[in-house]
Write a structure and sequence with these properties.
heterodimer; A: mainly beta; 13-stranded antiparallel sheet; 14% helix; 36% strand; B: 86 residues; mainly alpha; globular
């Protein structure tokens, strides 16, 4: 793997800007692999109020590292537009928390017709400590710039000037939860015959649109996973993995995102298959696992 | 490994990797229309069979012609048998 002459700032390589640029810099990069660094400083959008990073955050860090890898090859003044398309076999082994420095490694394992498959691993690193525990790993696929027509079809420029100041201290999970729309008392999930249902609408000032993407607000993939996780397991359980997840269509501001989640298992370890629609059209499908809290 | 064993392993890998439990895998089944797979699954399928059978597929243009499960079986059989005779 080639090391850049000096670490490259991620903000110059990614379309993500402002708070949604979650990685800090690219440490190493070649055509088939990259290593990035993320610092979970207080106020980082992936941190929850309890100081832990939301487990879905590992996915965003991996996706942005893959995107930054493509950004290195882009022309001066432009950035790469690789977009997360699917996830496979994501395993979350340990928590990340405030002030952690994370090292994200991605390796290309396949490419077909403008769709790239990558393996990722995320370790915690600490100054002077050789041991770097593995926190999460998995695979993702992304539409890459060679798939420009597909990517262009997903984007829809928006001229709205948005003020994100109201949500500037919110973590992404909390910001997503505030977008729940169903039923009074914020009981956004209703259960019918073992199927849980939830609804969400993302206003233009949703914190996840702050830089994702400038002029093209699209609900981040991990926000959609947070919606499904919230619908299936409420607030107390903990996401442990994503077996499979496909993003089929972008979700835009003010579209009604509906989640139908079928939970399997009655013990501490459970799994869920969720289908998501946006304005009635399928937008994502996923199978994930979670762990119920000890009682 | 016999041809039948390769076909069985191919089907088992598909069921496990792409959550096809409950679907009947017939040779004439169309991968996209009948089994619900799509272009995102195609790239994963390439990786799956490369790893399962120790074969090299890469960007082989022949895979674009695969439409049915039978096409897929024949493609994998061809690659595995070519490796054996190499």
């Amino acid at each position: 793997m080639n090391k850049p002459a000096s670490p490259l700032e991620a903000a110059a390589l990614l379309p993500h800007k402002s708070r949604m640029c979650c990685i800090r810099r690219l440490l190493e990069c070649s055509e088939v692999a990259a290593v990035a660094e993320a610092e979970l400083r207080p106020g980082h959008i992936l941190l929850n109020a309890d100081g832990l990073m939301d487990p879905c955050g590992f996915i965003e860090l991996a996706a942005q590292t893959a995107g930054a890898m493509y950004g290195v090859g882009s022309a001066v003044g432009s950035v790469s537009l690789a977009m997360l398309a699917s996830l496979q076999k994501v395993t979350i082994l340990h928590d990340a928390r405030v002030n952690d420095v994370l090292r994200i490694t991605v390796n290309v394992i396949g490419e077909l017709e403008g769709i790239l498959s990558l393996q990722f691993m995320i370790h915690r690193q600490a100054a002077g400590v050789a041991d770097r525990p593995l926190l999460a790993q998995g695979r993702l696929t992304a539409y890459i710039p060679e798939n420009a027509a597909r990517i262009a079809a997903m984007l829809q420029p928006c001229d709205t000037e948005t003020d994100f100041s109201a949500g500037r201290n919110l973590g992404l999970k909390e910001a997503v939860w505030r977008c729940a729309i169903d039923a009074p008392g914020r009981q956004d999930a209703t259960q019918t015959d073992g199927v849980l249902a939830g609804g969400f609408v993302f206003p233009y000032d949703f914190a996840g649109f702050d830089g994702h993407f400038p002029g093209n607000p699209i609900v981040p993939g991990i926000a959609q996973i947070i919606c499904a996780v919230r619908t299936a397991m409420g607030s107390a359980a903990k996401l442990t993995g994503v077996k499979r997840c496909k993003f089929l269509r972008p979700v835009r501001p003010l579209e009604e995102l509906r989640v139908r989640a079928e939970v399997n298992g009655a013990g501490r370890e459970r799994s869920c298959h969720a289908r998501l629609t946006a304005n009635g059209e399928s937008c994502a499908e996923m199978t994930f696992t979670f762990e119920m809290p000890l009682v | 490994m016999t041809n039948q064993e390769i076909i069985t392993q191919t089907n088992e890998a598909l069921v496990q990797e792409f959550e096809l439990e409950g679907l009947e895998l017939k040779p004439e089944s169309l991968l996209y229309e009948d089994l619900g797979l799509d272009s995102l699954d195609s790239v994963d399928m390439v990786i799956l069979f490369e790893q399962s059978f120790d074969i090299k597929i890469g960007k082989d243009p022949d895979i674009l012609a695969i439409k049915t499960l039978n096409d897929l079986h024949n493609y994998v059989l061809g690659k595995v048998n070519a490796r054996k005779s190499a």
